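note to self — DONT lose this again. spent like an hour looking for the file last time. sequence + predicted structure for the chain T wanted, 148 res
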Amino acid sequence: MTVQVQNLKGDNSPPSLILLPEQMRRINDITALMEQKLPGLPEYHNLIVNSNHPLIQGLDGIKSKIHPGESSDKDLYDLPPEELSSIPTVCGSLREAIKALEEDNQYLLAGDVFTKDQLEGYMELKWEEIHNYEHTPHPVEFMMYYSC
């Protein structure tokens, strides 16, 4: 699971969403057509946290007096490279996200939300997932090299 923090627009937007990426839906469709489940294929979901929602602002932004930033209605595909480079991005992989969590996790320990043992256990579990994911053949590799 990847976690993304975004400024969702609208007064009725929820504090968070859990989405199944399109590529995982397609992989699930392909494996269904093959009539078999590929071993070790992870269930990959995105958790999108709405930084504009009052609940999320209350958890982080208000306490640390951080402004979540202005909403943007620009089309990212049409931006010139110099303007695109100024837009902050999130981690591109679970590996990057866990490395960032290892480097900065003090905010999760504040207020006894999580204990250090819980965070270390979570990170250990995620490192196992990363190892399994990186050492499992992709469905395309499976079809190319292990076809029957």
